[in-house]
Amino acid sequence: MGKRQIAEMQPFELVITLIIADLATIPMAETALPLIQGIIPLLTLVCLHFLICFMSRKSLFFRKLFNGKPIILLDPDGINYENMKKVNMNFNDLMEGLHTAGYFNLEELLYVILQTNGTMTVVNRAPYAPLTPSDLQIEKENACLPMIIVTKGQVNTENLCKAGINENFLNKHLKKNGFKSIKDILILTINNNGKMYVQGKTGSFQTIETNYKGGNW
Fold first, then answer.
1. How far apart are CA 30 and CA 55, in angstroms?
2. Is 75 helix (H, G, I), strand (E, B) or coil?
3. CA-closest candidate to residue 186, choices 169, 165, 170, 203
4. Nearest to 155 by CA among 136, 137, 168, 144
5. What's the rounded Cα separation, in Å, for the pair 17 and 172?
6. pTM beyond 0.70, yes or no
7. Of all helices (H) and strands (E), which one includes residue 71?
């Protein structure tokens, strides 16, 4: 099912997961049954899941059939009670979901959408929307993605190549900031702007500014 199963499953995936768990216990509990009788149903469900996912990707009709469609629970006019009844929700369910998402006042919300996996998506009304740097005309540094270069004294050579740096570069900055060698490092990361997060096996972490620029990972 991929990593989607770790977060929120679609309804048909939950059903398949429960059936697989039930089928897998039969050949383990009933030793008199041939193993093949336990494997065939499991393989059938795997093929069924693959077929459903394939059909859902290729056809909007099948996507709606197997996954359903998002439901608007609250719109600019207020709570849509008819849609709430369609998904068998009450007001306590709605408020609990909003509280979990960090929203407490209905008048602040423009839309509340119940997604097919059961999560709620919220759109704030303009006066209550969070401010952004562009609203305040503030220039902000671009977001950076740190890459792990060293863990427990071991250099990740693959990430080192992706970053376009070498061990001499690391040793130079580490010694300048009081670290004797790479083997003394618990974790070291570097981001696209050349800022390194370094924590030794003893002591607290340090943030090291370097002249490195140009990481495009």
1. 36
2. strand
3. 203
4. 168
5. 52
6. no
7. strand 71-75
Buried b / exposed e across 80-99, counting CB within 10 Å, b at 16+? eeebbeeeebeeeebeebbe
**Consecutive 10-residue averages of pLDDT for the chain (217 residues):** 59 79 79 79 87 86 84 94 92 92 91 88 89 79 82 91 89 90 92 89 89 72
DSSP count for the chain of H helices, then E strands: 7, 9
**What length does the chain have?**
217
Q: Smallest Cα–Cα separation from 43: which of 58, 29, 24, 18? A: 24
Q: Tokens for 4? A: 């989607």
> Which residue bears the tokens 């490195």?
212
Listed in sequence order, the residues at least 6 apart from 93 whose beta carbon sits closer than 8 Å to its beta carbon are none
How far out from the chain centre does Cα 123 lie? 20
CB half-sphere exposure, 45, CA atoms < 13 A: 18
